[in-house]
Amino acid sequence: MDRVVLEYEGGSILVRGGAGTPYGRWDPRVNAYRAMGLHYRDILEYLRESGLSFDDLVLDLPPCPTLSCKVALRPYQRRSLEAWVKAGRRGVIVLPTGAGKTFIALEAIRMVGTATLIVVPTLDLLGQWRSRLEGSFKVEVGVYGGGEEALKCLTVATYDSAYMKGEILGNKFMFIVFDEVHHLPAPSYSQIGEMYVAPYRLGLTATPEREDGLHCELPRLVGDIVYRVGVDALVGTHLAPYRHEKVFVELTPEEQRLYDEQLEVFRGYLRRRGLTLRSVEDFQRFIMRSGGDPEAREALLARNRAVKIALNSEAKINLLEGLLEKYRGEKILIFTLHNQLVYRISRRFLVPAITHQTAKDERREILEKFRRGAYKVIVTSQVLDEGIDVPDASIGVIISGTGSSREYIQRLGRLLRKVEGKEAKLVEIVSKGTVETRISWRRQDKPLPV
User: Which residues are registered as beta bridge partners of 12?
Assistant: First the structure.
């Protein structure tokens, strides 16, 4: 048998020399077995266990200096890292927002000490990671994203760039850190996990579960969940204690009339068709049905209008006015789902607003003034839920949101950075007797009361 040779080609491993591999298929076009880059580590182990000699030409790593930094880990952070090492330096660590997942990654990078790619979902996180890596390791950091393309020993890339450049970058790293790893199983992004050969992988998130169920792909792409701690386990010791208060408000008579009218259009369609929606999957099938059924589409739009009425009711704004007066002087974050409501609140109470439409420099200035205390209140839509370093706040007010538990946990996490003597408070305002009641219970992962 010819000597086995391993090569890299566009996101896959070629195994030449006549030796087969259980991780790939024969490709007659190149006269070799072809396997996903994901299986590089598995193929090496298979060849070694089979006693086969081989030449490994897969890796093309950028030059790396000695990577050193000083990171003081808390006990739970140290335990999480030990669990990851025990699992073969592969796996997902689940910790609440504000629990210091970045510090764990920095120590992991120091331990591995080799070419590392950090993959992030947003340009804001790209900049934050770049600054943190440069400050910690005192090296120039490569970047793929936001118009930049530079490869270094330590490189940060957005999920979009890591996906689009996967065929080129797939053999440049031994270690990949997936920040907000719940993004990875998405249909396109999952190819990052498949094309890159990095044998060492670390996923970080506060909430790995996805509503589409694709989180079941994480063990294949990154590794199992090796360590998991929830908010309540860290409250009082490493996170600020908090109280959660849910306040129900009534729709105005006119809002109630419009709400009932729109919801009846939706429910009437379901009755006529004999349909019952008991799960997320049922609702997703209904959405697909609306694509080819005009009546179903109108029913869906009517439901959306009803939900919007409930989420944006006038009574919520009136209650918010009282809360802003009650907690005057404290730092307050107001969360909504729709940009329209953000600007409505901003105009009425003369507070700065941050949405996806806010320019990056303006957003940075608002957050810096909030940090210094020049601004005491910010109203925002989903843009601050993930990927932006938000200064400490003690009061959070959820005016509206989705049924996502991830969104709820991330919003709560914005309040929990520990400060001596601080008790955070999260106030959730819900329109009574509407579909928002169910949405509210869903995002807290609690069963709906009978």
Answer: 9, 36
